[in-house]
Description:
This protein is mostly helical. 70% of the residues lie in helices and 0% in strands. Helix 1 (6-23) runs parallel beside helix 3, helix 2 (38-48) crosses helix 4 (87-102) and helix 2 packs across helix 6. The longest helix is centred in the C-terminal third of the chain and has 43 residues, at 146-188.
Amino acid sequence: MLSLTSRQQLAIGIALALLMALTRGHHWAAMHSLPDASWAVFFLAGVYLRAFWIAPALMLGAALVDYAAITWGGVSGFCVSPAYWFLIPTYAALFLAGRAYACHHRLSWAALPWLLGSALAGAVLAELFSSGGFYFFSGRFAEPGLGEFIPRLVRYFPHMLSTMATYLGLAAVIHVAVAGLRGEAQRAG
């Protein structure tokens, strides 16, 4: 289990919220080329932040970013439908997957299967909730069925998974670097 001070958790929480706000979809023209970090943000929040209220707070933040982008930013509201509510279990699955990994975290190669397995399980559930929810409950598809949904899943999930993996890889590099610096400081002190 990760042992972080309240101050460290606050700094991580602010950084994660900013990352999500700056990368969420095509909301900010200056950040157009950065892929959405929301899935990784919820997973990492589950890993690093102990308070359970952070998940609903991040969900509210995501909704506010979407609202601002649609209302004032000229972003299409196509994805806002009755299926938008499926983002709650989507993000909860990622947060809980991060929490599951946190229970097994060690700065060791032996923890890597736990990280990969937890992240993959969270991502699969997130894709099923978000894409499945949108496809079956948005009202945007005339006659939704599994025969049409599965090819859509195969088409879109690899991109979502690779984006999440990229952000998690970057977070892992930062985590190891910070742990190394802290270890050096402790040995010197």
